[in-house]
Fold these 2 entries.
Entry 1:
Amino acid sequence: MEGMELCAVAVVILLFIAVLKQFGILEPISVEDTCDGDVELSAARHQPEGLEELQAHTKFTKKELQSLYRGFKNDCPSGHVDEETFTLIYAQFFPQGDSSAYAHFLFNAFDADGSGALCFEDFVVGLSVLLRGTAQEKLKWAFNLYDINKDGCITKEEMLEIMKSIYDMMGRCTLPAPRDSAPAEHVEQFFQKMDRNGDGVVTYEEFLETCQQDADIMSSMQIFENTI
Amino acid sequence: MAAGVAAWLPFARAAAIGWMPVANCPMPLAPTEKNKRQDELIILNVSGRRFQTWRTTLERYPDTLLGSTEKEFFFNEDTKEYFFDRDPEVFRCILNFYRTGKLHYPRYECISAYDEELAFYGILPEIIGDCCYEEYKDRKRENAERLMDDNDSENNQEGSMPSLSFRQTMWRAFENPHTSTLALVFYYVTGFFIAVSVITNVVETVPCGTVPGNKELPCGERYAVAFFCLDTACVMIFTVEYLLRLFAAPSRYRFIRSVMSIIDVVAIMPYYIGLVMTNNEDVSGAFVTLRVFRVFRIFKFSRHSQGLRILGYTLKSCASELGFLLFSLTMAIIIFATVMFYAEKGSSASKFTSIPASFWYTIVTMTTLGYGDMVPKTIAGKIFGSICSLSGVLVIALPVPVIVSNFSRIYHQNQRADKRRAQKKARLARIRVAKTGSSNAYLHSKRNGLLNEALELTGSTEDEQHTTKGTSLIESQHHHLLHCLEKTTNHEFIDEQLFEQNCMESSMQNYPSSRSPSLSSHHGLTTSCCSRRNKKTTHLPNSSVPATRLRSMQELSTIHIQCSEQPSLTTSRSSLNMKSDDGLRPNCKAAQITTAIISIPTPPALTPEGESRPPPSSPGHSTNISTTTTSNIVKVSAL
């Protein structure tokens, strides 16, 4: 049959080509980009500022800084924490709920220079404010956390997002049972308390004033003082 | 919580300040850290190698030895370091676990040593990191198999348990032909008959001689009666064997379902079916088919051959590879058969009449048989035919090494098991020697000790006392311990040879003849551990007294130590070791008893062992030796 003979000849030619490939004769035909296989350099290592500078910028003693750095470097040998790792680490503390949203906000709050990765300086400067700073500094930090777009005032939407992320960390198994309206209600309460002039946003001054007048808030700011 | 993130806890706590303005109620108080001390370096001295680490590093895992206060037990005040008398190599891995949170398993390490170290430091092996977990589990499994093998063979070789019922002995005889001569005989007889049966089946079909009419007749029809008798005999034997096995099997249901029993049944059923069916001529065709099943008798040989069993087991374990081989072959056959059919369709008088007809060609070609009864004639057919044969080689060659390696692995495992069993015998023998060595040391020291004491008493030379000084403190404490045991149980340790001798001798005389009445009265008396003066008086049987099983004591100024070389001079102890005769004999049978006989030193005041003071004798230097051919047999727990 003609057709079958054609097929047979075609198969023979194919096999011939396959054999020739082995001899490298057909190299120019198959040009592949093999160069970018292993270009991916590992991310550059980050070295923090010197100990003296950090001591100047923060309120930690030398020993404390040493201890902090040891822990930090142990977990992040490269000196950076990217957001994913940060989220993972933070999630370990809240096994029941979903802390990824809040971790995102935290990350942004700590990442002062917006580099996308936390380095040791960011870490230590943030901790210094939170643990050793004045009440005002702490409140400023908290305001900064709530103000997602960093425009100087907290809108209801921003607050709602923050609130939802906090409630997400609780997870589903809570008593009383979680309600979808809880964050919104809480935001309303917050705005009633904080929004002095009722314009729908909370500015830094309003925030500061309200908090300073609230004894509960002021006392609860102090409870983490002896963390390190 | 994983250790690594413990370092981040302060951070998370600090970040909690972000919730404060939002909260409506005051926060609970934070826990205060008592004795908050600065992080300090601690030194861990492991067999001389010093490791240093931060205290907080170790405290990451508080439920381990190093992370808890348990390590305080190992604190050395003088050097202010923690000293562990363990392997420093493994400690390296353990310390790395604290540092990095991952536990690794070093490949060069022995698995049981590693396990022991982990257990010591209170670390669960389950947290071994993924990188090393597989290796660890594999080694552990191998070790477990080895231990199981050892235990199995140990159980198989345990001394005869007297409580085996007849049925159990029979089963053991069937499973291990080497246990008794009868079993061995049975084994060979069945083997012989299997061979006879198989050969009969084979020879039956050989043509031998012609009948008038020039027809070749197979031997089976020529000597029909003879073959029938042979067959009957074999089937009788097989049936009896099967029924015996069925009777002896510990679990009949499991036995019936086992492969060997199915083979047995299949081997003998045709005969019985044939018996029943000889009348019916219609089913003679089926009858002939049944005879084919007689060939299954050859599989009965697998009970006799270890290699056959291994082969069968290998094939079973390679089932997936075999399946793959079959599947790929089938695929290739269908493809090539189709192609060949269409290629050869045009040629005249082609044998490739249909695709199934081409299957035969494809199979023969792919397995490189090439009978030549079907060959392609067209060019296309030839081209595809050659491709077919080339690919056949490949398809078959791929799964075969897997099967071979499986077989090799299983076979070697078996060989290793046999080797281990042989080595085990040697090991056990060495252990036994060591054990008897230590017990002999005890006896020896006892003799020397008593000798020395007696010598002290008699005021003879004190030079011999030095002989006992050679024993170390541990040895002497061990001996003291054994001595206390003797005192507690009112028995004594005795040399094994001696014990057996006494056993044999005592079994010769069955009655306590010529026992002095005073002795008999002391039959049940036992002296307390440290009694010095017992009220019983025992007379010395003198040598004229035939062998009895008396306890005799004599007053000795010098100690006559019973040695196995002087069986006639067995000096027996006091009634301390009274044992009734009936208690005697079962003790003889028990294999593991070592007993000790020690003769009594004279002055009761000096020796703690209770002995009796024969009234007439004076605590002098006279020596009365009682000769009894039997001595008290003391049954003590085996050393």
Entry 2:
Amino acid sequence: MARLLAFKAVIIINVLFSVCTDLAYCNNGRRGGDPLETEMSGFSVPLEHSFELDDVAKFQSRGSLLLKTGREPSVSLAQNQLSEDDRAKLKEVAAVDGLYRIRVPRVFLQADRQTEWQMEGYLTAFVRACAMVESHLSDVITLHTDVSGYLIGVSIVTLPGACRGTEVEDEVDLEVFNTTLSIMAPVNAPGPETALFLERMEQESEKKGKNPQEQKSFFAKYWYLILGGAIFLMLTNSAQPPAGGGREQS
Amino acid sequence: MAKLILLLLELCIIFCVVHAVFEDQVGKFDWRQQYVGKVRFSHFDTQMQSSKKVLVATESNVFAALNSRTGELFWRHVDKTGPEGNIDALLHHAQDAILVVGNGRVLRSWDVNIGGLNWEVLLDSGSFRSASLVGQQGTVKHVAVLKKAFISVHYLSNGHQKWIENLPDSETVDYQTVYSGGNGHVLVLGVVPHSHITIVVYSMEDGEIIKQVSVEAPWLSNIPASCVVVGQGILMCADSTTMSLNTLDLHQQTQMTQIPLQSLGLEADPDFHPSLMSHQPNAAQKPLSEFFLQLGPERYLLLQLNNGQIVTLRDFNPALLASFATTGEKTVAAVMSPKNKTACSINLFSADTGRRLLDTTLIFTVDPNGGKPEKLHVQAFLKKDDSVGYRVMVQTEDQTLTFIQQPGRVMWTREEALSDVVTMEMVDLPLTGTQAELEGEFGKKADGLFSMVLKRLSSQLIMLQAWIAHLWKLFYDARKPRSQVKNDISIDNLSRDEFNLQKMMVMVTSSGKLFGIDSKTGAILWKHYLDNIPSNAAFKLMVQRTTAHFPHPPQCTLLIKDKDTGLATLHVFNPIFGRRSQVTPPALPQPILQSLMLPLMDQDYAKVLLLVDDQYKVSAFPSTKNVLQQLQETASSIFFFLVDSSQGRLSGYRLRTDLSTEQVWEVVIPTEVQKIVFVKGKRPNEHVHSQGRVMGDRSVLYKYLNPNLLAVVTESTDMHQERSFIGILLIDGVTGRIIHEAVQRKARGPVHVVHSENWVVYEYWSTKSRRKEFSVIELYEGMELYNSTVFSSLDRPHAPQVLQQSYIFPSSISTMEATLTEKGITSRHILIGLPSGGILSLPKMFLDPRRPEIITEQSREENLIPYAPELIIRTEWFINYNQSVSRVRGIYTAPSGLESTCLVVAYGLDIYQTRVYPSKQFDVLKDDYDYMLISSVLFALFFATMISKRLAEVKLLNRAWR
């Protein structure tokens, strides 16, 4: 039984929390500015943002993403503070329910050489500017790669995500980004679990073989039910011979 | 062991939802219609006077025999789709029908009477050119098949090859036709384009080349298109450049004789390519010396070749179609000529003289909502007085077959356009007149007490009148024998039934013909043919206004888009009557990228349709002031997405108040690695009753119900079986956030996806295990709901939990859809169309990633089925018992007024309509429900209470006195 339970735990972890485990390992590269990261094989790309009153995107640098290439790509972020003008603008944009957009260039993370990682075009995402303000610039940015290591999408959410119209008085709250950054590769979808199923079946039959309790015949275990049934039948139909119990078996 | 048995019993009791129908229910709630497709070849079975068969071979690779009295199918053989099953030729002789299939791959002989296969032979490879029956000494015993490089002759009786011969110089000469005049020779005609014709004469006995001639013909490039053989083996060709007929005696001459049309006194249309039509009644005899010459789109001439001279027998001007038919020794020519705008007349003429036969006029009424006549198939027969009678089968552009008998009685019509349904919708029927009257009373604005009272009285009066009429009808019908009482469904007495089980099926076919079909009986209530539909059109059908807004008529809009140019047109119509709507749709000069229905309505309750053109400008339909104002108000919350699968680009846009758009997100999937094959959202009319699932420990696991979620399926470009994969991306359509990204390794398409509620089910081919597999993804928010009142994509910071499980499926599938009910309380089933023609209703319960590997008390509490890797197909899950649906291409589901019932239409070559009850009929009393018992028990109880109350009172009173 203990073995079975262990199996169960493994499966549940496999199936239920595959995403969560991924998240955990992806988050190891959060918080920017670590000088060690730059020395490893990697490169940096700009992370740009735009928030304009007329909603025409004008991207400016927000920081730089340091991407470590290879089999297990990781990412870290070094970003600037918001200037006073930007803070004011962000609040204004938030007041008219404008958008706060970010973009990163498309890159190929598995590239060996510097020239290969660059690709044409950008990946963009947005949140409402008011959510950015009300969350005091705490956002979660996730970079998604495909199987072969191409960056295919970026997403940004703020925590908390809602716009409740609360005023942010303190200018200091809008100075420093509090960013959680992660990079996610696709999860391997499970195939049909034939091996485990067969193993389970085998175990069950083995267990039955060992346990004499289980091997008791049907009659041995349910004789009282059958007897009761037979008596009941006899009472209801006195013409019926007491062999009526035999009918129960079929 | 016993535990297992008990468990199984328990499982059976809990999970076995029985779908099988009882014998007496067959055909009660379901119907099937079988089609054959657009007719390419047709032959009347003329071996017996009383034969009722029409043999048809169609462009859908179907060979069938129709009953010429009723139009029903005697038998039907459905071959493979695509070029492999393409029917190249149909030859008919006595009891045998010879078919050449798949570009000359197979030669088959069918028995016409019973539709059984006589024999089948595989032919040597080579592209097919022509086939012909070969007669000798008055009997037909062989069939000759001409391919690019050789000719082979087979016995009709068993298909064995009599001889096969290579064609001389087949690299340079393009052999196109084979001909036999019944004299022991087989002639093969080939052409070197713009140079000469080559005629090779083979001996029928041993395939020896008897003669080989080349004849100068620099203007000729295609023999079947411009030449026919008439009379004693005379090749007659029409030359459109010099406007002349050229004759060549195949047996004697080596040079063509040119006869200018002008010398016959004929003027030809300069733009028209004249064509010829001859007739060979029997392969063992020579063709007739009379032939038709078509000189213009509406002009035919019956000509005769007489000792090298061409004689005009009759000039048919105007004439739409002409055809020959033979019965016994007599051959007649049938000519269809336009009479007026709505009718054509067909007349018979004697083929030898061109004289009109008396009393042979037949009127063909042209459907104003149909297409023009395209082909005429004539069945001639000898009457008792030895005169010729005939019936015709007219084939029109809209793929309709109409069978007409003299003097114009339509015996049957077949709408073969329905063999290729592209998309469909089900629309509620309107209320009855009285119901509508009452509704209208509430709909109108109040204008004074007195008039309101009057209105109320008048509507009450109308209701009374209707009720009396109904009673009278009941009384009247009761007197008639039951067989005569038949509820004829017509467009006038259509009304919604009590539970809204009867609906109007609006079907759009690839030929551009629209149909309105009653879902209860399958009767076609209206049809409308849209001409000038491009051949590669994509259709999208949308219901803009339902029937719920009386007195405004319901309104459907069909978007027809040319796939190459992107240019689109709108057809707006009333789905109940099929009539074009009064509303003029906007002209769309720009290519259209995307269309979306908004939940916004204008003042006339029509939903707003937004069309995005290639300049990313948005136009609205209807575009009244009211709509534009509403759009301006809500613009900041209207998002849409575009998919460019050629570049792997998914981009999201937001509407601006000036109806321009701005891009807000972009996801790019590199096309070098994978290509997008599907983007599937959820159905907008879907309801989810339960926000969560109750777990074994009584806590609730909340579903992630994002209405904007898109399931994007990709396939790898690398098709190697070790490296190929299928990618599944779940993207929020508003924010572009990738919610989940998974790859199914060692898998390949074709992929079928169903996306609904909080789950995505997809099916793929596993290259590793070489089998079909199902996978299910379910999304859960977790034990707490982030914001239980409203879902907003802009405010859901936490990613959902993703659960996934896969299963083996023992069959390949054609299409997949989920059931849909009114309120979403009923459990869901997945309807799977199998290539075998079955439609399987698989409970979603079996596709549940929470199915446990090890059974625990909690999972049992939750009614979870223990995980088993294989999904077993149970025969009682087939909802269409023996009513197989050939080549099922799509399944449409619609909710009915009953929560338990879902209406299902499966379409492909056939159309099948039925109802399914995924959780059984929990809201319907059974047919054999004992009303008497329940009411008598109720009454008895009622009286018992009364009596006991009275007795108690008396007792109390007595006690008080004591």
